[in-house]
Amino acid sequence: MSESKTVLPWMVIRQDPNGNRYRVGRYATRAEAQSMAERLGGGRADGAGAEGAEGAEAADGRAQERRYLVERLRRGGGDHA
Question: Which terminus of the chain is more exposed, N or C, with fewer CB under 10 A?
Fold first, then answer.
């Protein structure tokens, strides 16, 4: 009996202020992953890293960080965040 492996190519990743990254979950579609990232605190679909939210600024004037990213699993690269 052979088990089929479900491919969940979209990942939600939390990135802390120091740049450490933690995979939160994997999803079948980008829309599912983006929805979860937004629910968790704002997602960035292109995975370019933590950047400020559009138009939002912290009390000290710096842009707030987006801590949840959406990235596609890289082929052959494993599932490391």
Answer: N
